[in-house]
Amino acid sequence: MFISPTMFREYMMPSYVDICEAAKRSGVDVVAVDTDGFAEPLLPLMQECGVNAMFPWEVKSNNDLARVRKNYPEMILLGGLEKEVINQGNEALIYDEVMGKVPELLKSGRYFPNIDHGIQPLVDFTSMCKFMTLLHEVCGNPEGEFPRMSL
Q1: Under DSSP, is residue 114 helix (H, G, I), strand (E, B) or coil?
Q2: Sheet strand arrangement including 111-115
Q3: Domain for residue 120, yes or no?
Q4: Handedness of CA 15, 21, 24, 25 (dihedral sign)
Q5: Cys-Cys crosslink for 32: which of 8, 53, 90, 91, Cβ 3.0 to 4.6 Å?
């Protein structure tokens, strides 16, 4: 975190609480926050505010979604798959990244698999299609609006 928990509580928490309360009054069930870096220390503070979802869970920042799920079972998790495995030349890493994380996290619920940030320029069409094909199959959704690729 760029600021201490004490400073977060003093300067940021009141606004987050106001936003979360307004969302709940309006019937919004999910309040999500986008955060970068190692986000695990931020979770208790976000929960105090009323935030119940976070993303993208950068892999290279040592975020471990299995650990997060164990410690925060009620939190909605989005992302957590290393974006660089989709880059051209890394196709062999796609299967291990998806299969090493997604099935168990899906079983635990409240998880939406995706890469841990935006698609990079090094991603080629074939790699992206292979990633999406595998992800759709693991999620039990074999349909989709993209060309299917053999794995």
Answers
A1: strand
A2: 32-34, 53-55, 76-81, 111-115
A3: yes
A4: negative
A5: 53
Q: 115 — phi, psi (to 5°)? A: -70, 165
- The model's pLDDT over 78-105, given as tens digits with 9 standing for 90+, comes to 999 999 999 888 878 999 999 999 999 9
Alpha-carbon distance values, 145 to 41, 74, 116, 132, 136 (Å): 37, 31, 21, 10, 11
Q: How many CB atoms lie within 10 A of CB 110?
A: 17
Number of domains in the chain: 1
Mean confidence (pLDDT) of the chain: 91
Question: Is 143 inside a domain boundary?
Answer: no
What CATH number does the domain containing 132 carry? 3.20.20.210
The torsion region of residue 51 among left (phi > 0), alpha (psi -120 to 50) and beta comes to beta
DSSP letter assigned to residue 1: -
Nearest to 102 by CA among 140, 72, 129, 150: 140
